[in-house]
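Hello again, I could really use a second opinion on something today. I've been staring at a protein lately and its backbone has me curious. You're getting the sequence in one-letter code plus the fold written as tokens. I'd be grateful if you could look everything over and explain what you see. No rush at all, and the record is pasted right below:
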Amino acid sequence: MSGSGNAADEPSSSPPAGRTLTKIIRKTEVQNTFATIFHAEFMDHYKLGEWNEEGAMKLLKTLKDMEAAKIKTVMYSVSWDWFAPNEQTLRWAYMNDIVNIIIDMLRSPGWLFRKHPDSRAVDSGGRSYSHMSWFHTAANRLAIDMLRQLGEHMVKGFPGCVVAIQPVYNNEYEAKFTQEYDSFQDYNAHAQAAFRNWLRSRRQSLVEINRRWGTGFRTWAELKPPPMMAGMLTGIEEHTRYWDWMRFRVEFGASVFNRACAVVQNAGLKCYHHFPEFFSVLDAMYGASMFHRIAASKHTDFLIMDSNFMTPYRTVMNPVKLRIYVAAAHAYNKPVYFEAAVERFANFDLLKAGYKNAMMAGAPNMGLTNWLNRIELNASLTQAMYTHPPCKVDELVGVFIHLDSCSAWTGLQQSSEVKDPLHNLVEDLAEKLTVNCTTDIAVYVELDRFTSDIEHFTRAVFVEPLFLYGSNELLSYAAAKMALKQLPHQVLHLPAHQGFSLKVIEDL
């Protein structure tokens, strides 16, 4: 395992005396299944830019094949730029033909940028993009209004048929920041202004900010976030300026997704989000710490955890890593789905292993995406999806991994022998914890949630955080460490350089 594993107590393989199993993570029966058909596939594969009989019949055959494979739900997407060719025209006829949709608000229409030329996303290198900056209030208000109209139309036109909507601001239909050229986003002028306002609401004095950061900004207008590029740093980022920027970034980003979901719910539908694999040195760039802020929101009804089974090394991931990644969703007490993306590796054995490990991680709902022309909708797929855990549970291991600390790395460690030490640590931990089929794993990325469930654990693995943000989180850390004393546990350390230990960032 990358990093050290200093055991405070050697982990026991059986419940301690007097402790009975009171919580089970794994599921035993598949509840729901779905497959996606994205907007680009409608255009390219089915040729349904304009409704036509040939394309419609081809789509109908696909839907019948899905039904035969026991896939219960189809998830469509539509992009804002195609749905709204101008500000006054919405393609309702097209929407009347598809339901249960992902609303892609990343691909903004050209008229939006003509109306708001300063609404494009900008990366740390100064490049601007053809997608909207969610920091631009007026532009995002138009996106949210489109979302509201669409939600209300679907509820009114298809009561009981449309289930949910996912609002998307990312190029991979996931709840994360977009990145290109390994440059962090978003550095739009409105993003920088929002960051300054966020700071000033907490510290009125620029002198205090300069002292905190070790900078010499003369005016608030000069103050800028650090320009971040993936992999620009070997090791971990320790500067408070960086951590303040990351804190703002994930808080603001999560609030955008949560407000969008509130609009969907107000229209009478459920709202959900896809989350990419985290526990990687890429987490900072994508804002992975938004996960627990979105998952905990009352505006999020269910969670989809997805994986394309590819490691940061572009090799096939060991599917047992899903036991940790997918299980992180279980702590939020909401329905959890696992979505297998097969654009990299289209293999039934891999699919079957992925679905089995997701089921054992607490996800009884299975999905499939990017499958067109790669995976046949047949009995083999049905068998893979409708998996069953091979054994019963006799112990529950509680695992804590501080997701916010995973942002200490800013990208792949290109100059190091190990390019993603965080991925290595978590995959290795998953392999060790899944040696016995009867072991259940409960994963927590927040200290308070870990501590509140500790009475249910047979034993625990506590991965020490690198950074805590503020005094409240320090108190939570102390409470977790005290609670750990009541059961067998193992303490591991994130693979930081030079023996780096815990750092507490002063309250802002």
